Amino acid sequence: GEDLLETIEKTAQRNGVLNGFIVSAIGTLENCRIHRVVSKSLRPEEEYVNIDGPLEINSVSGIIANGKLHAHISVSDRNKTYGGHLESGSKILYLAEIVVAESSGVRLDRVLDEETGLRLLKAI
To answer: Of 2, 19, 64, 83, which has fewest CB within 10 angstroms of its CB?
Structure first.
């Protein structure tokens, strides 16, 4: 299966989408690789998790800012639901249908916030 994150990014690039929003997503995954926050500190600790499938995609939401995708995903197996920041390594099983709405009139980018160490979304 194709890598879900890379497929979304390449499709957006191929279609010239520099700024946009994921508005809908369905499909299945062989596995899902996410990272999630595991502390409440200002510079949060994170853990990376690989979830073996088969998995159903419940939702994907995200923002493409200046050509860079930041996406979160929710998936489920027979017993549990998982969620977090979508990482490379999540392989599509049968299909993944993702709808992206292009932003017109507003350019977006992520700017490093020195205090938090986070890259915050800004309209530029």
So the answer is: 2
